Amino acid sequence: MIDTNNMITQNMTISALQDAYRSGELNVESFLTAKLKQAKDDQNNVWLATVSDEQLTEMLAALSEKSLDELPLYGVPFAIKDNIDLNILPTTAGCEAYRYQPEQSAQVVQLLMAAGAIPLGKTNLDQFATGLVGVRSPWGAVKNSFNSEYISGGSSSGSAVAVANGNVSFSLGTDTAGSGRVPAALNNIVGLKATKGLLSCTGVVPACKSLDCVTFFANTVDELNELLTIAAKQDMSDCYSRLNLGADAVYQPASGLASLKIGVPEQEQLAFFGDESAQALFANSVEQLKQAGAEVVTINFQPFLDAAKLLYEGPWVAERYAAIEEFFVNDPKQCLPVIETIIGGATKHSAVSAFKAMYKLQAFKVECDAILAELDCIVTPTAGTIYTIAELEADPIQLNSNLGYYTNFMNLLDYAAIAVPAGFLASGLPFGITLFGPAFSDRLLLSAGAKVQQLNNFTLGATQQALSKVSSTVLSDANVEQVDIAVCGAHLTGFPLNHQLTERGGYLVKSCKTSADYRFYALAGGPPFRPGLIRVAEDGTAIDVEVWRIPVSTVGSFLQGIGQPLGLGKVELDDGSWITSFICEGYAIESATDITHLGGWRAYANQNM
């Protein structure tokens, strides 16, 4: 009997599926039938349409005429954002009234299917790809793969969540202002916005035709590299298509970060919109790059931010109007109100204002290119924070703008970018960083991104699948055994003993809380001043902690530096898991101050230090 549940929880990386097919562990037809059923049963507003059982049977019949050795994506399920044509399903671009039946699939879809990939259907999006939030859809907000109360990011919302939830191995999105990067960051997956024109936009409903890029979402950077190799083909029917340069052909993840010079914005130019945990995670990511051997230099990020403002404050919004002009003029009320407002505002711009903005953009590009010329790439947060769906709907324009702070300039300036997971916020939601560089720096960015992903070694998407067990790239650091340790006092980010973690190659995984079973005390003595965490049977409270990951080989020396009455033991987190952490001997509270009501050491320090 077929174990359908095992198929649904199967590791979804391309290499893992290929191995399972080859060994006979999985049957292609049974597996894809189960994955299609999973898509049809989705409750997160991910899918707008799925292929029929008959259509899947036809695709499987065609696949059976080939072998695993012939097709690099043999039997690999994928999802398609519903502004990209698949000839066996209608395209809506997130608007029912716009629905049409394409005669042929987009070129990029054709290339992927020719390589053996099987599309399961079309995914939800912010209407007409206008938004970075994933809530601007008549079919409902796409729910974040980690917490349904939070946004998924957009506009390629359904495509990102389909990968993060393990429904498909990879997916297609588009990116004009960040839509191929923000959803990746908010769902703990990787996203590639390749050099503009490397992936054909033939068969894509345009948002801003001169800026649009087709993008990939996947679990690993290795897969992004493989997909780019398959699909980056020049398309003479796309006037913006470009042939890749030979210098952009080499993927070298094993080379690491040691030879790279990476720029980071000045501190006052970074924006986290009040999210201290995001700020801490980004600072940790920068420190991690340094420890991995990269030369990190501070740059003036203002020209990039100034260029970003042109995307929505300048005449480029008129391209969105031009893309659907006939449809929009006929009846603008067929669009969602927020989309009508954005696209309708384009009519105020003139040809004169467009040329003036082009001159401004070119001046910014000269300035930004000069900064990049001294670097290999630049690192930023992908998004400065995350919002709940309720928060977003209460302030849709401003919060959407906040999400584009680090992304809106990218296509205007003709840069390539990769989004990579970088930890978890205090809310428990994912956080990510972006590495970007000039056009045709894709392989360098992929190589660097692969190294960052291996160093972090997070689980994949919202699944519990481990990266170290599936990556096809073997890096020395990936084989280093690591342990997670929760800290609650002087070892927190920005506190006096944090260096004891960073010096051992440690990095911040997430900010979270303990279960509601602890009392918290300010211990006598110091400096350094330290807290004590004690588990109690009643009258407990959840206490703020940070989870850090360090090599197992360094735990002994770390333990030796811990003075009484503290030691390492096990503490329960608010998700029910138990983790190695600082614990305190009971006798110490006799001379300590109970600070449980403050909920954490940072709150205590802000009042008393």
Q: How would the blueprint of this fold be written?
A:
Blueprint: H1 4-8, H2 14-23, H3 28-40, E1 47-50, H4 53-63, E2 77-81, H5 107-114, E3 118-123, H6 157-164, E4 170-175, H7 182-185, E5 190-193, E6 213-218, H8 221-231, E7 261-265, H9 276-291, E8 295-299, H10 302-313, H11 317-323, H12 325-330, H13 337-344, H14 351-372, E9 377-381, H15 389-394, H16 396-403, E10 415-424, E11 430-438, H17 442-456, E12 482-487, H18 499-502, E13 507-513, E14 518-522, E15 531-535, E16 544-551, H19 555-560, E17 566-572, E18 578-584, E19 593-594, H20 601-608
Parallel strand pairs: 2-3, 2-4, 7-8, 7-9, 12-18
Antiparallel strand pairs: 1-3, 4-6, 5-6, 5-10, 9-11, 10-11, 12-16, 13-16, 14-15, 14-19, 17-18
Helical stretch count? Answer: 20
Instruction: Classify the fold: give the CATH topology of the largest domain.
Output: Amidase signature (AS) enzymes
Taking the alpha carbons of the first and last residues, their distance comes to: 64 Å
β-sheet strand percentage: 15-25%
Question: Strand order, biggest sheet?
Answer: 1-3-2-4-6-5-10-11-9-7-8
What's the CATH first level of the largest domain? Alpha Beta
What is the β-strand count? 19
Shape: globular
Instruction: Please give the radius of gyration in angstroms.
Output: 25 Å
Task: Enumerate the spans where pLDDT stays under 50 for 5 or more consecutive residues.
Answer: 469-479
Task: Provide the residue-averaged pLDDT.
Answer: 91
